[in-house]
Structure of Chorismate synthase:
Amino acid sequence: MAGNSFGKLFKLTTFGESHGAAIGGVIDGCPAGIELDFEAIQNELNRRKPGQSKIVTQRKEPDTVEFYSGIFEGVTTGTPIGFVIHNTNQKSKDYSHIKDVYRPSHADYTYDKKYGVRDYRGGGRSSARETASRVVAGAIAKQFISTIDINAFTSSVGDIFIDKPYQDLDFNLIESNVIRCPDEATAAKMISKIEAIKKQGDTIGGTITCVIKNVPVGLGEPVFDKLHAELGKAMLSINAVKGFEYGSGFCGAKMTGSDHNDLFNNDGTTKTNLSGGIQGGISNGMDIYFRVAFKPVATVIQKQEALNSQGELVEMQGKGRHDPCVVPRAVPIVEAMTALVIADQILLRRQESREW
Amino acid sequence: MAGNSFGKLFKLTTFGESHGAAIGGVIDGCPAGIELDFEAIQNELNRRKPGQSKIVTQRKEPDTVEFYSGIFEGVTTGTPIGFVIHNTNQKSKDYSHIKDVYRPSHADYTYDKKYGVRDYRGGGRSSARETASRVVAGAIAKQFISTIDINAFTSSVGDIFIDKPYQDLDFNLIESNVIRCPDEATAAKMISKIEAIKKQGDTIGGTITCVIKNVPVGLGEPVFDKLHAELGKAMLSINAVKGFEYGSGFCGAKMTGSDHNDLFNNDGTTKTNLSGGIQGGISNGMDIYFRVAFKPVATVIQKQEALNSQGELVEMQGKGRHDPCVVPRAVPIVEAMTALVIADQILLRRQESREW
Amino acid sequence: MAGNSFGKLFKLTTFGESHGAAIGGVIDGCPAGIELDFEAIQNELNRRKPGQSKIVTQRKEPDTVEFYSGIFEGVTTGTPIGFVIHNTNQKSKDYSHIKDVYRPSHADYTYDKKYGVRDYRGGGRSSARETASRVVAGAIAKQFISTIDINAFTSSVGDIFIDKPYQDLDFNLIESNVIRCPDEATAAKMISKIEAIKKQGDTIGGTITCVIKNVPVGLGEPVFDKLHAELGKAMLSINAVKGFEYGSGFCGAKMTGSDHNDLFNNDGTTKTNLSGGIQGGISNGMDIYFRVAFKPVATVIQKQEALNSQGELVEMQGKGRHDPCVVPRAVPIVEAMTALVIADQILLRRQESREW
Amino acid sequence: MAGNSFGKLFKLTTFGESHGAAIGGVIDGCPAGIELDFEAIQNELNRRKPGQSKIVTQRKEPDTVEFYSGIFEGVTTGTPIGFVIHNTNQKSKDYSHIKDVYRPSHADYTYDKKYGVRDYRGGGRSSARETASRVVAGAIAKQFISTIDINAFTSSVGDIFIDKPYQDLDFNLIESNVIRCPDEATAAKMISKIEAIKKQGDTIGGTITCVIKNVPVGLGEPVFDKLHAELGKAMLSINAVKGFEYGSGFCGAKMTGSDHNDLFNNDGTTKTNLSGGIQGGISNGMDIYFRVAFKPVATVIQKQEALNSQGELVEMQGKGRHDPCVVPRAVPIVEAMTALVIADQILLRRQESREW
C-alpha cells in the first residue's frame, strides 16, 4: 500500500534513493519464455541516463543494470525478476547545504512532515533517479508486447510547440536530436531555448506526446480501471508531471457532440479519432495518443529563499547537477510507463476470454 | 481486478446497469462510529439525479438509496455498507433501435468486442447511471472527513470560461444556479449556451474545477501512488472525462522554474501555490485544486451514421432522454470521487504514524 | 482491505448482517458468456439453508437470491454480478438478552472491542448467515469451472469417523442423508450422535473432507500464493474452522521421506498421492484433497456464565435457534469456497501462458 | 498477482533462485523512525542458515544481508527497504543430473508444466532458500512490533512429541539445543532420531508450535481476512507445510460446546483458551498459539525412480546437500512469517480507529 508498486498482473516494485548504495526493483508476473535482448534494455537506460548531452544534468552514472533472478539462460522463467543499479557517482557533499533546509517546490518539506526522517541527499526517494528502475521494467514490458508500437516525443518546450498533428511526424527522427523532437526545425528551437535558459541558471517546462499503435481491441477494465485512467495514473506518477489528456483532451471540452463524434468505417475503424483510441474506457483498435505536461525543474541555480527546519527563511544558492528541462530524459520514462500499463492490460485481457 | 472497485482502505465496489433491476454498491473499510446524516446523502443524490432542471436529461428517477448493512441505529459499525438504488423509470423500448447497432463514440462497439455479449439498454454498464453509487459512497466519505472542504463547480461550458481565479469565487453560490457555476454572470451565459445547443439536438463539453481546503499535510504515497496520481485516476474514471491537470497544470509546462517555484512563509505555507497543494506527491497543507475536462455527450438528437454488428453503416436518429451537457450533473460526481480519494488517503496516513 | 472480499480475478465481496434487511454480494471478474443455471444456484442455497432437517437450526429462511446486474437474458455479461438475499425471519427479540452481554467463545467481545459499536442481533456480521452469499458466488464459480468436480462431505462428527479412504466412497451418496456423509452406516451413527447432543442442549464439532477431481496441471502461484495456501485461507475464513490439512497433512509430519514420496508413472501421474495433488504449491493434475476441522457451535442451550459490558459475570441461558453441529450445513460452504479458489486460479493461469 | 508478495500494508516482495546470483526482497510499508538493530537481523539469518549444526544441510552460506535503501543513518525512513543476499556457495554441478529429470514429490514437474522453462539448479525458485528473505523481513517486523513476543519451537519430530502444554515450557531454552525444542529430554530424543534417519539417507517430518504473547485485542479483519486465516495462509506458504491448526485445532472437532467454550474472567480474559486467542477472526488478547505440520524433505540420499522430460522412468540417486529434517531451520521462518502477519495487522488496526 505504501505506493512503490505498479501494475496488477505485470507488476513492478521499486526501491532506492538517489544517493544510497543502489536502486532497483522486482518485476513480478512477467510471463515465462521471453528471450530477452539485454542490449535493448541497456539502450533504454542510456536514453534516460544523466550526462548524455549538453542539455541534461552532468551527473555521470553508467546506469548498468544487474539482473539477479527470474532469467535463466537468457530467457524469463516466470519467477520474479530482481534487478539492481548501483549508484556510483553520488556526491553527497553537494547536498550538505540542504540537510536542514526545505527547498521551494521540492518534496523536502512534505517528506519531512510525513515521515519525520529523511534521506536528504539528492532528494532521496523523491529524486527522479528512481525512474531508472521503471525504464528497466518498461524495456522488458516492451519486449513482451513487441507487436505494439509505443513512441513518445517532446511536443513542446516552454512556448515552443510542434505545430503538426502526430500523423505528419516521422518517429524515426525522435532519436536524431538531443531533445527527442521528430520535427527537426522545432527541435533546433527547443534546444536553443534550453541552452539559453540554462545559461540563466533557470529551468523550463514542456510536454511529451505519446502514441501507441497496433493496440488490440478490448484493453481496459470498466468502471474504475478504464484504460485511460490507468495511463493517466501512470503518467501522473512520473516526477514533475502536472497534467494528462488523451484524444481530444482539454480541447474536446470546447467542442460539440456533432463535431466530436468519430464516425465508423465498415471495418470498425473510425474516420476521425478524437476518442484517442479508447471508448468507454476500452481500446477500440485505433491509435491511442495522449499528452503529458511537465513543470519546470524546481532546482534553479539562482539565489532563492528557502525554509529551514527551525522555521526560519534562509537564502540558498542552488547547487548540484540538475536538468534545465526534464523533457528529453522523460521521453523514455513515458514510454516505459506506457509499456508497463499495456503489458498489464494484455495480461488482464488474456484471462477474461470466454474459452478455457 | 475487473475494475469495479475503487480505493485501498476506504473501498467502494459498484454494480449495476442503466436498465437493470437496480444499481448499488458495497463500501468496505468505512470506520465504525460515524453517525450518518441520511438527508445529506440523499441531497447529494438529488444534485446528481436526472430531471432536476431544464438543462439535463428528463429521465425521471427518484434515486432513493436503501442501505442493507453496516449501519446500526444510524451509526456505522465498521462492517461493509451494502446499498441499492432501484431503477424505476427504465424505458428499454427506447433502446430497441440500438440492439445491433454501435453508436459513434459510445462504448457499444468496445463492450461488444471485449465481452461478446452486452446489455445494450441505455448503455448498460457503460452508462453514467453507475455514478449514482459513487455519489452515495462519496457522501458517506464526506461525512467521515467532515473537517475537509471539497467544492467542485463548473468552470467552463464550450468556450465560455470563468475568468477569475477560484479564490475570488463564493462557493456558497455554486448551488444557486442549475449549471453550478459560482459566478452568476458566467452561469447565465453557460445556461443560454446549453439551451441553444439543446435546441439544435446537439451537445457540448465543459470543465469542472475542484478545490479541497483544510487538507492535512502528509497525504499521498510515493512513488506510484502520488496524491495527484490518485486524484487523476479517480477523475479519469468518470464517464466522458478527457483530461486532468492540477496546480499550474498544462500552463506550468510553459513556465520557468524561477517563476513556478512557490516560496515559503515561516509557517510552512507558501506565498504562491502553483504546486496545487501537492509536492513530491504529498499534500503540503495548501489548497489542492485541479481541473477536469469533459467531452460533449456522444448522443446527439440528429441523424448520424452508425455501424451494425453485420459491419454495415446504417443511418440512425438519436433517441432517448439525454443530457445536452454532462457538466452540471458531474459536479457532485467529481466531489464524490474526491471525497473517496481523500478518505482513503486519511486511512493510509493513519497507519503510517510512528507511534502505536 | 477491511477483509470482506475474496479472490484476485474472480472476486467476491459480501455484505450483510444476520438480522439486517438483507445480505448479498458482488461478484467481479466472472467471465462473460456463461449461461447460468439458476436452479442449480438455488439448489446450493437450499443445501446450506436453515430448517432443512431435524439436525440443523429451525430458523426458517427461504434464502431466495435476487440478481440485480451482470446477467442479461440469462447469460453473464462480464460486468459485476450484484445479488441480494432478503432476510425474512429475523426474530431480533430473541437477542435482546445479549445486548450488553458477551457470550463465551463468540465474537461479541472482540467485535465490541474492535469497533466500539455492534449489531448484536444474531451475531450481526459474525454470524454464519454471511456464508449464504458465498454459496451464491460459489455456485456461479462451479458453473464456470464445470469440468472440475468438487465434492465435500462430512468425514467426522465428534469421535465418529469414516474409516475408509475417500477413493472407496461413492460421492453420489453424499446428499442421500441429512449429515452429508457418503458412508451410510457412519452417517446413521453421526445423526444419532447429533440428536443425542441436541437433546442435552449441547453442540459438537466435526470435520469435512473435500476432494477436487480433474484439476488442470499448473494452478497455484509460488511463493506466497501456493494453491494449498489459498485453499487453506479460504477454509480458515469459514466460521468455526480451527484447522486445515491437505494431502498427508498432520500424519505426513510423522513419516519418512522414503515412505512419503509419490513415485511417478510414465504419464506424469503418481502411484501414490500423499502430496494431495499439489507440489511446490502448484497442482500436478492428481486429485486435490483436504480436511477441515470445525469446532462445536458456541451457543449451547444451557446455563453459562457470560460477561457484560460493565465487566460483570452474569448467568445466561442460551436461546435462539441454533445448529447442534455446523458440519452438515457447512458442506456446501466448503464446496463454494473451493470453487471460488479454483475459479480464481483458472483465471490467473490463463494470463500466464506464453502466447498471446 | 504472481504470488511473490506478502502482506497488505507491511508488504514483502521476494525474488531469487537457489543458485542464481542473489536472492533478496523489498519491504514496502515499514513505518519510518525505527532504529534498526542489524545484529538482531543477522542473528535471525544465522538461526536459519545452512551448516549451523550436524543435523542440517552442510551447504555453507554466510547469508549476509546488504541493505540498499529505506534506511538512513540506521533508521527506517518509510521508503521501501531493498535488500540482497548474495549466493556464494552454489555448486550447480551438483544438479546437472536433474536437468531433465523430475524428482518425486519435488516441484520440478509442476514448475516445468506451468512455465515451460525452469532454473533446475537446486530447485530454483521452489527452493526453501527463498525463505532467507522472509527471515530478513520478519526480523525487521519483529523490531517494529517489539512489545509482542513470538516464540516458535519444534514440538515433534516423527512420532516424538513434547508431552506438555506450552505453558509448562521455558522458551529461553529453545535456542539451547540444535533442534530448537525447549524440553531438553525430548530434544535429545529428537536429535538422536534425526541422526539415525540421516544415517539411512532418509528424511523425517515434524511439527512446529508457535505462541504469540501480549497481542493487543482487535487484530484481524472479518470476514475473509480473519486473523487465523492470515496466519494459516502465511504458514501454508512455507515450503513443506501440510497442515495448520490453531487453538483446539483438530482436537476441537471432537469436543462438545459445553467443554470447548472459554468462560470469561471479569477483565475480559478467559479461564481457558481453546479459542487460541482469536474469536470471530479477531484477537481477544489471550495467547495466540498454533501448530504447523512439515512433511519429510523429498530429497532422500537413496536410489529412487524419477521421471524425465521424455516420459521415461529413470533411476536416480539423491545428491546435493540436504536437510534430513526441515524443522530446526524452519523455526525462525515460522517466527518471521508470524511477525510479518502481526506487523501487517497492527498497521491495519491503526487505521480503523474512529478518531483522526
Q: What stands out?
A: Chain C has one domain: 5-351. Chain C touches chain D through 105 residues (CB under 8 Å).
